[in-house]
Design brief:
22 helices; mainly alpha; globular; two-stranded antiparallel sheet; 4-stranded antiparallel beta sheet
Length: 528
């Protein structure tokens, strides 16, 4: 079971690697298209704004299509064979599922309690996925469908059909079965998911009448519901609709800015409802504490690699409030840490609320600056100074709590993989080891030696990879070479648990895996 959990966590990390660059593009694009910061240069009708807006909208691609991205990416780490074909199968069957669901809702939406004619977003519970108007099931729906496809792929991909049906072998056969499986799955989704969404709407009515307790519960659930894609349904009526103030908190606050700038009273006393937009404090102050804890608990030889990974992710969270890059590095590997993160986020936001600090604080520092600090600093600088002090204390709390829990429970956060005693060989050492290989490419040679060390291709029953390691299941563990062998050939070592072997390769592991698979596909067996 633990092997499957770790394998799932590795699969989830694959799309996360795209988040850092996309987040930086969003942060820079938002900065240069914010009129409150850039002045007339960023007026919507200026060429400067329009050019940067093109870049900004491109940067949102990854985050606007997260469910689709995860549906396609999961097979990379979870399919036991022909991963690329499984990715294609997951894509087409995920879209098929939503076409089925969309058609059911358009024809019988009232039966399921869904107003299909409503606009997507907000309280409608609807979303656009690959231009399909469907239920907003977030990442949970994507992972569920992808998981079903992976099961069908692993079970039926190698099914041998009669010769006269040969054109239906492989991916076509998986798609045929999945096509009919998706019909009842779509029906179940139409029956169940709207009920879950209704429960969310009922909850909104409760939290808006309970003051600081309501703020704590609201922020906690906003964070905790991110993996399920339900956080949009929770906050949208508050931020953009009439749940607490006419027109939503964003519009209401913007219209109130002249009045707020003219007063020195506590912001909470002026617009108490704005406490619900405090989700950004954990982004600006919490994520740096998390990143520092990851860095400090990483193994010494991996700190430089971890720093390179965490730096852009942390800046993305602080500047533009996009937290998926850093949160997804531990969401699936150590779920208890994510619950703790949600708890601390709610606590920090409630402390800010009790201190009288409210406003539009749901995004990162760029959004906070444009809607709070820049227009209101002259009259409310004391509160923003207090915000900074409370926030920095929060950063320290996140750091110490995460560091304690990571060490206490040995969570495998970035840089803490089970490869004790790793020696990183220099390029010259590696070249010396490969001197007998003549003109062979070093990477191809490494793949060959890894395959030899695993007992040859006939000893391998399953081969996948995570971000840095080859994950291999073998028939006979006695044929596998010891850790020292893998270090001697240029890898960073290997660890064995039962019949499972993890060869630590580094960030080049996808290429090495492909080369190992190519060697395994050759007709002549690799010598041992």
């Amino acid at each position: 079971m633990m092997q499957k959990v770790q394998k799932f966590g590795g699969a989830m990390f694959t799309p996360v690697l795209l988040f850092a660059f996309a987040g930086i593009v969003i942060g820079v694009g938002t900065l240069f298209t914010t009129e409150a910061i850039m002045g007339e240069l960023a007026a919507p009708d200026s060429l400067f704004y329009q050019c940067w807006n093109v870049i900004l909208q491109g940067g949102w691609t990854v985050f606007n299509q997260l469910p689709l991205l995860f549906a396609v990416s999961l097979p990379i780490g979870m399919a036991k064979k022909q991963n690329a074909r499984c990715c294609m199968e997951a894509l087409v069957l995920y879209l098929t599922f939503h076409y089925f669901l969309s058609t059911m809702l358009s024809q019988w939406g009232t039966v399921f309690g869904v107003d299909y004619s409503a606009e997507v977003g907000g309280t409608s519970g609807l979303a656009m996925i690959a231009n399909i108007k469907t239920l907003d099931m977030g990442m949970l729906g994507a992972l569920a469908i992808s998981g079903i496809v992976i099961y069908l792929h692993n079970r039926f991909f190698d099914t041998e059909l009669p010769d006269w049906l040969g054109s239906f072998n492989g991916s076509t056969f998986v798609f045929m079965i999945g096509f009919f499986v998706m019909i009842p799955v779509a029906l179940i989704a139409a029956l169940v998911w709207p009920k879950i969404q209704l429960g969310m709407f009922a909850f909104q009515g409760f939290v808006k009448t309970t003051g600081a307790l309501g703020v704590w519960i609201f922020i906690f659930l906003e964070r905790a519901l991110i993996p399920f894609g339900l956080h949009h349904i929770l906050y949208s009526p508050f931020y953009y609709d009439n749940a607490v103030v006419p027109g939503g908190l964003y519009s209401y606050w913007a219209n109130k800015l002249p009045e707020l700038a003219a007063s020195t009273e506590s912001l909470r006393s002026l617009v108490p409802q704005a406490g619900f937009t405090a989700t950004g404090f954990s982004k600006v102050f919490g994520c740096p504490g998390i990143a520092l804890a990851f860095y400090k608990t990483a193994k010494p030889e991996k700190k430089k690699q971890v720093l390179a990974l965490l730096l852009p992710m942390t800046l993305t969270a602080i500047l533009c409030g996009v937290t998926e890059p850093i949160e997804f590095t531990f969401l699936f590997i150590a779920p208890p840490l994510f619950v703790v993160h949600a708890f601390l986020a709610a606590t920090l936001s409630t402390v800010m609320y009790l201190a009288g600090i409210v406003g539009i604080h749901s995004g990162g520092a760029i959004e906070m600056a444009s809607l709070n600090w820049i227009p209101l600093m002259a009259s409310h600088w004391q509160q923003y100074l207090l915000m900074l002090g409370i926030g920095l204390v929060g950063t320290a709390v996140w750091y110490f709590v995460f560091r304690f829990l990571i060490v206490k429970f040995n969570f495998k956060t970035p840089g803490r993989e089970d490869d004790e005693g790793v020696k990183f060989y220099s390029k010259q050492e590696y070249r010396d080891k490969q001197a007998s290989g003549g003109a062979k490419d070093a990477k191809n040679e490494l793949a060959m030696r890894i395959l030899e060390g695993l007992g040859g291709k006939d000893n391998i029953t399953e081969l996948t990879n995570c971000a840095t390691r080859l994950r291999v299941n073998v028939k006979d563990i006695n044929l596998v070479q010891p850790d020292t062998y893998f270090k001697s050939i240029g890898a960073h070592g290997a660890m064995v648990k039962g019949k499972s072997v993890q060869v630590i390769v580094g960030l080049s592991v996808p290429k090495v895996r492909a080369q190992v698979e190519e060697l395994m596909a050759q007709s002549d067996p690799v010598s041992q």
